Amino acid sequence: MNTAKPETIALFCLTPGGVTLAQRLQTALPLTCFTSEKLLQPGFIPFGESFAQTVQQAFSQYSALVFIAATGIVVRVIAPLLSDKLHDPAVVVMDERGEHVISLLSGHLGGANDLTRQLAGSLGADPVITTATDVNHLAALDTLAARLDATLKDFRLAVKTVNQMLVSNQRVGLWWDADFASSAALYDTRGFIAVENLEALPELDALVCVTLRNELPPQTIQLFKLVPKRIVAGIGCRRDTPPQIVAELLNQHLLENHFDPLALRAIGSIALKKDEPALLELARSLQIPFNIYSVDQLALHEQRFPASEFVRATVGVGSVSQPAAWLMSDGKLVGNTLKQQGVTITLGVSDRC
Questions:
Q1: What is 219-254 written as a DSSP string?
Q2: Within a 13 Å sphere around the CA of 2, how many CA atoms are in the beta-carbon half?
Q3: Which one in 72, 261, 268, 303 has a CA-CA gap of 20 to 30 Å to 319?
């Protein structure tokens, strides 16, 4: 999934005026600027085979693309590259005089709306944002999800439904579980109706719950569970353990600890397991990072946990899953360590967004 905070920004300019404007922007933002050979200036990169070919490469390599060009040209060059709002980068367009900055693609999840405001602020320009929730000065579910690094079941449909309800003046409640209630004020929730108690709801058409829980009290209205990705899992396993076994045990352990499987943020293990098929498949199928730790890194925290001499003789340290989870969660472990079928799994909760 793309991010609401573009970390790498490619800028394309096609005219001398565009190059001049790009040079102004370089002083305010970390930009990789591309232009034609004839307009090349220090700090700029020439187009490759062509402008279109360079854009095609950048589309999958950068979090955001900024064009100082006519909107029509940009639409034509990016049209064959479009996938969906979950994966497309932010795309922003501006005129070479720096009077208008347009959020063109991935306004919420990709962060184009925020980038548009930032660029417009740097130039004193007019930000042009057309997403319905922004136009109506309302929050958006996909923006909230991006800020929280959270996800939902049936993400596209849930976002479409809730955002449509908000702009249609329907009553959408927002409840924060205790783990997140203290930080609720940090997020844009305009248009949502604050809910304090799930047992005593105000009159609502739908309810969004920010929680890690796998189960919530049943409701008579539409309920959308927004699940922040905060759970990490340290995993140790015998060589060539079938991927299905590891996946099933991990899911079992999450549910035993009352966590929604969508809350899983990352898995981790010892460097010796960097090519373990079951762990690689798990990370690939869940689209989460697979963090690798050296023996020395794990050994720093080995004394905190019971050690296995068999494991030590096999991999060089007496415990794998527990110190790995400790490192990923800054020491915030939860529940007991699962030990079944040659697999060990330890869970932790990370505070990092």
A1: -SSEEEEEEE--EEEEEEE-TT--HHHHHHHHHHHH
A2: 31
A3: 261
H-only helix segments in the chain: 16-26, 51-61, 71-78, 112-123, 132-135, 141-148, 155-167, 178-181, 243-256, 277-286, 295-299, 309-315, 321-329
Q: What is the pLDDT of residues 310-343, one digit of tens each?
A: 888 777 788 899 999 999 999 999 999 999 999 9
| Domains defined for the chain, CATH in brackets | 9-130 (3.40.50.11220), 141-228 (3.40.1390), 231-349 (3.30.420.180)
* Amino acid identity, position 177: D
CA distance 99 to 125: 5
Here the tokens at position 107 are: 């306004």
Share of the chain above pLDDT 70, in %: 97
State the number of CA atoms in the 13 A half-sphere of 19 facing the CB: 16
Q: Which amino acid is at 267?
A: I
- Asked if residue 267 lies in contact with residue 245, where contact means CB atoms within 8 angstroms, the answer is no
